[in-house]
Amino acid sequence: MQRLIDNKLIFGRLLEISEPHLVERYKQALTGFGIKPPKTKKFRIDMAGFSPEIAAALGDEDYLDPNGVNRRFIILTPDQMDLPVVRTAFSNTEDLLYRFFEANARELLTITIKDVLFGEIEDSVYEVTDIDDLLSIEQVEFRVQTASDLLGQTAELRLLIDRLLKEPEAWRDDKMLNQMVDYAKTTGDIRENALLPTEVVFRQDTYWTSHFGGVYVFIEDRQTTVICDPSAAGFRRSRPWQVAYIDINDHRQVYRFLYESGRIDSPRGSWIERSGLLEKRMIMLVAWLAMHEDSDVDLSRVDAQWAAGWSARHPDVIMREGSVPLISQVLKQVTNWSNIDIRDIAPHQRFLISRANPEHKDFYIVNRLISEYLPFDYMTRFVFNKPRFYDDYSHWPANYQEFVVNEIRSSYLKDKKALRRQFYK
What we know:
The chain is of the alpha+beta class and 425 residues long. The protein contains 19 helices and twelve strands. Helix 7 packs across helix 8, helix 10 crosses helix 14 and helix 16 packs across helix 17. The longest helix is centred in the middle third of the chain and has 17 residues.
């Protein structure tokens, strides 16, 4: 994994924490979770406060997510809002955190000047044993606290101020007045500086989770659809009157669901010609086939011309696998602005010539699901499905690892928005 780290393909946009007071605050938060802080004096954190250096020192990659549910977080600065979440059991953790930061921006700024904010994204379950546990999570609540009980003292001071204003004789209570002064020394003037986050409850939207080897849960007003391996505990048994279940290995049914719900862009000339996604997939596919034929293959000059040459020299491989001829056929047809009848395409090849509908709110997670069916498409997996990409990477030969890293670094990291806009929007 060192090549990924060196090229910033993992842990690449984290925030370095080295100021002694911030390091100490982080350790106070760990203590609040019942974790003995390591002696680390400099480390990096993501949006949720996860640190690869702290994880290594503790020997626990899940120290902020011990049960894969009720995710912990540590907030040292509002600047964390612009960071990624690099390790999570739920795909929507980043979105929930972003909404929390955005809704409570003023409060978080004030709190983190004085203290560290930490807690859990709490839901209705404490352990996931079957799919029904996942379906029980309809909303989450951010349970927050501070190392110096700043929030508790703020709440107490607010009650005392309210009493002082409403009880005629309260101003004679010297003990109460002295207590208010003591609280104010810590909290400041809470009439001017908001310290309590006001928006802490958020609805659970469509998501992917790593539980049971990977589960996709699509949430709509009248229907919830679960897509996963049928070996998952509770598959087709949890809430069958409310939930539709699709075997993730059933390409026909998965594609049909995405198509009928408007979540997928089927092959049409309007986006295929403009995006260049299928041409890119063909090159990635040929490189992937070449790697499987010869793990020592030279991949230093991979481009469209190289792919065409390799395909011409290995027609048996190309015809046996079958995807390159399909992409070529589709590209020729859409040049004449003719749509492809998806019913004429074998179910296991339909995702090859499709992408997520960029106008649908589930655009990101649908591209993630599509990437499950395209093991050669390292670009889509890296952009939308990093856990799967990292797992793939660990099994590739060194020359293919180097090729993929160079490709992503030169094309995606150079301008992320431009690449996403070209291929996927």
